[in-house]
Amino acid sequence: MRKNQFTKTNLAWLLVIIGSYLLINVLISAGVINKIYQTVMLTIGINIILAISLNLIIGITGQFSLGHAGFMSIGAYSAGVIVKMMDGAPSSVYIGMLVGILISIVVALIVATPTLRLKGDYLAIATLGFGEIIRIVIQNMKITNGAAGLVLPKLIDWPVVFVFLVISTIVIVSFTYSAYGRACISVREDEIASETMGINTTKYKIMAFVVGAIFASIAGTLYATSFYVIKPEIFSFNKSIDILVIVVFGGMGSFTGSFVSALLISVLNTSLQSFADIRTIIYGALLVLIMIFRPQGLLGKYEFKFSKLFDKFAKKEVRQ
Amino acid sequence: MNLKKMIKSMLALILVASLAACSPSTSSTGTTEQGETDTPAAEGQETYKIGLHYELTGAVADYGVAENKGSKLAIKLANEAAGYEKYVGVEYDNKSDSSEAVTIATTLASEGVIGVVGPATSGASAATYQISNDSQVIVVSPSATQNNITLVDPNNADSDVYEYIFRVCFEDSYQGAAMAQYATDTLAASKAVIYGDSASDYSKGLIEAFDTQFTKLGGEIVATEYYTAGDTDFSAVLTNINSMEFDVLYIAGYYNEAGLIIKQAKEMGIDKVILGADGFDSESLIELAGAENLNDVYYTTAYTAVDASEKLQAFIDAYKVEYNEEPAMFAALAFDATNLLIQAVEEVGSADAAALQAAVKGINFNGVTGDFTFDDTHTPIKSVLVVKLVDGVQSSADSVSPQ
Amino acid sequence: MIQFMQQLINGISLGSIYALIALGYTMVYGIIKLINFAHGDIYMLGAYIGFVFATKTGMGFIPTLIVAMITCSIIGVVIEMIAYKPLRNATRITALITAIGVSYFIEASTQKVMGTNPRAFPNLLPKGNLNISGVVITYQQIFILVVTVLLMIGLQFVVTKTKIGRAMRAVSVDTDAARLMGVNVDQTISFTFALGSALAGAAGVLVGIYYNSINPLMGLVPGVKAFIAAVFGGIGIIPGAMLGGILIGVTEALVSGYGSSLYKDAVVYVILIIILVVKPAGLLGKNVREKV
């Protein structure tokens, strides 16, 4: 029996997607969203994709990874190299993305199989190590132009990032709410218990890790083709930390949280821009303050769902 | 959520909001405290905004901060000469992050600056060029030294040059080749060891150029070794180098690491001639290496204090008065880059982008880092000087050009 | 052979610096299971405090060291009180983010206050070296190694033989049970931070003297390396930090000397991953079986 895909909630989400696309278009043509905000929007979109893909690994599956920037760099450099080879043809973005995804899958499997046996901070340091190894290898390769990096033309604009943001969100959220995702959550909650229930924990951990890596790679491709320059140092472990901050700030395990926090951090960052050199001081202090007041992250594990909203309305009607 | 928690989170939100709210006011006023002598522009007096886009925090803040000081000094002196606040510096920090640099370039373009000075590093600079060029904002880079970075595709020497992008520094390849020339011709070196930063494009460019030119002139590169920026212990590689047969050691990097490398090399007993590039040019090199270790050290640079021009001496004095420290090479380059923009404005007398671009392109500039005009790739044509250090003091300077 | 011995010496002296920082790291981790990202920055502060004190007062090595250690331990305790204490019951990743925030704050503030350029640290220790049939060892290298070993022994003594050490171990095993048994948990954790930060401060001064160069971002790389050293040897285990630090130092030196200096960091990470996969609890760690 096939489930009806055209449920009320799915339709509502479709409306939200189309609505926000149109709204952004209108705001841009009305001049409300100027060029600066368009650039900020690119950052936000890419950061959200990075954050939800890391959230799948950390928040949903409970595996502490600090190597996300490594997979981002694979996507970025695959696209970068192919764009250079194809002389900046528009299709090169997608070919590069595909290549990046394939390489990421292979590398993720190589990384995951031995390291995901580790737990907690040991896993974190092992993934950090892998991320750095990927960076050092890229730094010493000829085709990636080593430390100087690649200067690329800008090939994509916000609609492309928007489309991939929607695709990433749908895939990752669907994964989370599928049987696989449930298994991943059980791994997070209690590994031993889920193993005794017959769940192959290693399999699900690797699965989540690979899916996360794929989307990190996609985000990398989007970054490379919209921010002009890629260099190995951009993808150092500090980048992984930045992504981690977005995830924890929004609430581990909450995709809505990742959206909100990527948005807030970008807005914060942009509005602090005119503070010049004390911006980082303020940012550090705010990070501490906010974590103290909201240790579970902005939204905790809360997830915005239309089904909940509809339920609420339904209950109200019943009461009346 | 209980009441206490709610109040707490409200407070946090208010704090964030208030910080965000008070930011725009500081952008225009915070950057223009040029001293009490300047009177604000009166009615009818022209003012020009110059974007100062630097790495003020983060990994390469050292270079960005020095350049920011140089730029601000140039603006201050120009305002004193004009008698009112004719030039306004609009400062931004890109946190040594190239995606941040993209946002800032966009912001600066929309704020109506006549030109931008910075960023300090090639990577962040390249990220801003297309935006600035498309919005017809002139960029004069103090220190984006990477080969062909002013071209649309730096990997392709035949690609077009960005109309609005200029720089006042040498190209890496030019300096590296000049040093190789000097090493062979003047120092009669035939075997060289290279030691550079594996993560820096500056270092990479120097190494390639030195290697090519030195080999072309019949020399032999015995070994090429690498460190990573931020390293402090070089003894393992130096021990290795110490066991080799060579005439000169070429350190392709900045003073932060070069100073320590020289110190550790001399303490280890490596008494060979040490060569470097303009990354050596800083008081910090002497502090870090120790004056007694800075003998038989040669480096390429654009300017020297040996027989300092009047202009240079005036700059050094003004800088010392303003900041109470010796200017580094970065500050001098940024001072020149900013003055170049100012000179163009003075020549044109308006903020017309096309006219300014033409003025900059055809400029005949007498700066503290040398006199020059621009070549086809908007890179200055100035001769390379090789400075010799004796006990940490610049003792002689020879002009070299690679053949 | 002389070359090999020399590289070994180079490696050990570099490693003893990693170990020095790793000692404080591993202790704090052992007690509250927090990856204290700000530890490298406290080390940096220690160097700057020593620098300011030594240049302003012209005092010698011992007073500089003591001032740096005391100031750092106060800073450490204050950071703990403000930034980590409210998060005692939050997840460990939350506390990690706070530590990152603290780290940004300290780095950017130091850049603002002290300037971004590297400073030359005054030389407070006698120079000179021993030459044993071609192998050169400087006095400062010996000094740093000796100080590190002494600190390790002292630390091990405090943790295993004293009352506060017993309290620390109790808190480390089970915080709630320790509290029920009358251990003042907050005080114990504060003490741990004071001790760990004092060690970081000492490391800052020693490294400042040894390399003669300090800058606001000097804590970044050694911070990560020290963390790796701690994991290498078995995190939370004091002699493990020492072993891990020295192993990393020697690996780096030998790879630079005999392999390719381009890949020295990569090799360290590869060895780290292999060790973790083969012996997940680190070299000296005990593999604890999870009870079902």
Task: Describe, in short, the structure shown.
The complex is a heterotrimer of chains A (320), B (403) and C (292). Chain A is mostly helical and 320 residues long.
Task: Describe this entry's structure for a reader.
The complex is a heterotrimer of chains A (320), B (403) and C (292). Chain A has 13 helices and two strands, in the order H-H-H-H-H-E-H-H-H-H-E-H-H-H-H. By secondary structure, chain A is mainly α. Chain B has 403 residues and is an alpha/beta fold. Chain B contains twelve helices and 14 strands. Chain B has helices spanning 3-29, 61-82, 98-110, 122-134, 172-185, 201-216, 235-242, 255-268, 283-289, 310-323, 329-348, 353-361, and strands spanning 48-54, 87-93, 115-117, 138-141, 165-167, 191-197, 220-227, 248-252, 273-276, 297-301, 365-367, 370-372, 384-390, 393-400. Mean pLDDT of chain B is 86; it is low at 13-37. The relative contact order of chain C is 0.20. Classes of the chains: A mainly alpha (320), B alpha/beta (403), C mainly alpha (292). At the A-B interface, helix 2, strand 1, helix 11 and helix 12 of A face helix 1, strand 2, helix 3, helix 4 and helix 6 of B.
Key terms:
heterotrimer; A: 320 residues; mainly alpha; 13 helices; C: mainly alpha; ABC transporter involved in vitamin B12 uptake, BtuC; two-stranded antiparallel sheet; two-stranded antiparallel ribbon; 11 helices
